[in-house]
Amino acid sequence: MSYTVKNLNEGDRELIAFRIGDQEFCVNIMSVREIRGWTPATAMPHSPTYMLGVINLRGAVLPIIDLAARLGMKPADPTARHVIIVAQVRRKVVGLLVDAVSDILTVTDETIQPTPEISSELERQFARGVLAIEKRMICLIELESLFPETESEAA
């Protein structure tokens, strides 16, 4: 996937949108390092259920996270059609397994609606807001909340 940097207006932010099942999500594009095709992962013993394993990414060990499972959805059954979004979360680089990348969105803070109060605590913990764009509802995920730095933050 090629990407051209365009001049953003003050307050604009770019997000990368992707699908998991029939739902759309997005993350800040500044967290994304690359998008690559599915590569089978080597399972790691005693890892969390949402961690599919690790792959070799140009000599570095990259943990692969089933984002559907991490978000409390039905775990993915990876195929060649799935993609891995390689993202920087704090000081760690992780691979996020998603069904497909769909768009690059340019939005303003006013475009982002707050997460509805009726959402589950899990959804409010990970979701920064919701975008209503072109008859689509896209949930903005805060990657830092998906992967707390310490176990005490996870609690």
In short:
With 155 residues, the protein is mostly beta strands.
Describe what this molecule looks like in 3D.
- Helix content is 12%, strand content 47%.
- It is mainly β.
- It starts with 11 loop residues before the first strand and ends with a helix.
- It has helices at 67-70, 121-126, 143-146, 151-154; strands at residues 12-20, 23-28, 32-37, 51-57, 60-66, 83-89, 92-98, 100-108, 112-113, 127-133, 136-141.
- It contains four helices and eleven strands; from the N terminus they run E-E-E-E-E-H-E-E-E-E-H-E-E-H-H.
- The strands form two sheets. It has a six-stranded mixed β-sheet with strand order 8-1-2-11-10-9.
Q: Any idea what the CATH architecture is?
A: Beta Barrel
Structural class: mainly beta
The CATH superfamily is known as CheA-289, Domain 4
Helix-strand pattern: EEEEEHEEEEHEEHH
Mean pLDDT: 85
Poorly predicted runs: 1-5, 151-155
Look at the structure and give the CATH class.
Mainly Beta
Number of helices: 4
* Shape field: globular
Q: Biggest sheet, strands in spatial order?
A: 8-1-2-11-10-9
- Radius of gyration, Cα only, in angstroms? 15 Å
Provide the number of structural domains: 1
Strand content: over 45%
Q: Count of DSSP E strands?
A: 11
Question: How many angstroms separate the termini?
Answer: 37 Å
Give a short account of the largest sheet: 6 strands, mixed
CATH fold type: OB fold (Dihydrolipoamide Acetyltransferase, E2P)
**Portion of residues in helices?**
10-25%
Organism: Rhizobium leguminosarum
Protein name: Chemotaxis protein CheW
Domain CheW-like: 12-152
GO cellular component, one term: cytosol
